[in-house]
Design brief:
- The chain is mainly α and about 60 residues long.
- It has one helix at about 5-60.
């Protein structure tokens, strides 16, 4: 049998590990989402630049 103090410390460790794991998953999702949004913005910008260049060629 472990002591009451031992159980308290064990429970603390389990809860902290769970909290850290949840935070790490959240943080990974945030970073992934931010990267995906930025990549989408860059692609959209490049597409718009290409369209403007093509329109200028047709007009000029």
């Amino acid at each position: 049998m472990i002591s009451v103090h031992g159980r308290v410390v064990l429970e603390y460790g389990l809860r902290m590990t769970t909290a850290l794991e949840e935070w790490a998953r959240w943080a990974a999702e945030e970073v992934t989402s931010a990267k995906a949004i930025r990549a989408s913005e860059l692609a959209r910008g490049r597409h718009e630049e290409k369209r403007r260049g093509e329109a200028a060629e047709e007009a000029g």
